[in-house]
Amino acid sequence: MARSRGDALELAVLGLLSQAPMHGYELRKRVTSLLGWGRVLSYGSLYPCLRTMQQEGLITEDTTTEPPTARPSRRGKVVYKLTAEGKERFATLASAGGPSAWDDENFGVHFAFFGSISTENRLRILEGRRSRLEERLEGVRSTLARSRERLDSYTLELQRHGLESVEHEVRWLTELIDNERVDRQARAADGPQTITSSAGTVPPAAENRE
Hints:
This protein is mostly helical. Helices cover 65% and strands 9% of the residues.
């Protein structure tokens, strides 16, 4: 497995387990949906990842007892849970805003857990992804301009479709970035908020110390 895909898988597993404990079957379904259409996660990829995480102390497992059924010999399901170290690792991976977070392999998984990170980190990842796609657009447009006359109609149509898809994502990213900036400015304009309690109006810092 390529390292970028390994990073995406680790982030997906940790992020999902941060929401709730899961057994392997449910985890595989949820991770597959995060990794994107056309990418089916095999148990041969998932379970080695889970074993490595257990060895590193990021997750732990618990065997649940199945309710009585017509097959009493049926084994219990192993449920995977996040440890304190796993929560820290998830926070680190989710907040990482470097080039690996902008790649096709990783961006969607990072985006799925945007609610867990700060506005600044969201903006860093969104802007990095947009810059990466704008570079791709420039390359595709240049290639089309040079080879348009040599391409048959189907190849040309495929190139146009790819170009339109990237242009659409760039517009989507720009809208997200603008919204994040507006929200950040609105919070900054509001300034420090006071909290009203039975003892009167209390600054946030004082309330937190109680």
